[in-house]
Amino acid sequence: MAKTRPGGLISKPKTGKRDLDSYTIRGTTKVVRVGDCVLMRPSDTGRPSYVARIEGMEADSRNNVKVRVRWYYRPEESLGGRRQFHGAKELFLSDHYDVQSAHTIEGKCTVHSFKNYTKLENVGAEDYYCRFEYKAATGGFTPDRVAVYCKCEMPYNPDDLMVQCEGCKDW
């Protein structure tokens, strides 16, 4: 049997990390779960919140909660940059995964498919859409093509008004 000095600390065996089903965002009553999209506080206060999808959550023995996230990129964060057809609320689901403190979660948001986003009656501050997946290392997109419209032959930007031609029925 090991002896300890009087007043000495006996180290407790480390308990493993445990998976969590949910986490309540600090200072709120909002609960996030695996699969939810969240706004995450950037280290630079002049930048907009980052958007990520929660892939997993775990707490250590001291109840420090970490989230495994898959990042969404804004067009200006991609290699090609923002283009004319990118909407203001457009995001790209990247192949970039990371582990972050749950304390950096600012709130929940919704990332819609492009089709569902264009059908929204009212677009809220926490509504975004995604029509591409983005490979961060190569700058490649999936799909690598989208339907084009009009004489300008540009993909549809939901922020721009489109009018259907009465003759050919094209937008």
Descriptive overview:
With 171 residues, this protein is an all-beta fold. It has one helix at residues 114-118; strands at residues 18-19, 22-24, 31-33, 37-40, 50-59, 65-73, 90-101, 105-113, 127-135, 140-142, 148-149, 154-155. The strands form three sheets. A six-stranded mixed β-barrel has the order 4-5-6-7-9-8. The radius of gyration is 22 Å and the shape is globular. Residues 1-11 have low confidence and may be disordered. InterPro entries: BAH_dom, BAH_sf, Znf_FYVE_PHD, Znf_RING/FYVE/PHD. GO terms for molecular function: chromatin binding; zinc ion binding.
Number of helices: 1
Q: Give the strand tally.
A: 12
In helices, the fraction of residues equals: under 10%
Q: What's the pLDDT, averaged over the residues?
A: 83
Major sheet characteristics = 6 strands, mixed, barrel
What amount of the residues lies in strands? 35-45%
Biggest sheet: strand arrangement: 4-5-6-7-9-8
Ranges where pLDDT stays below 50 over 5 or more residues in a row are: 1-11
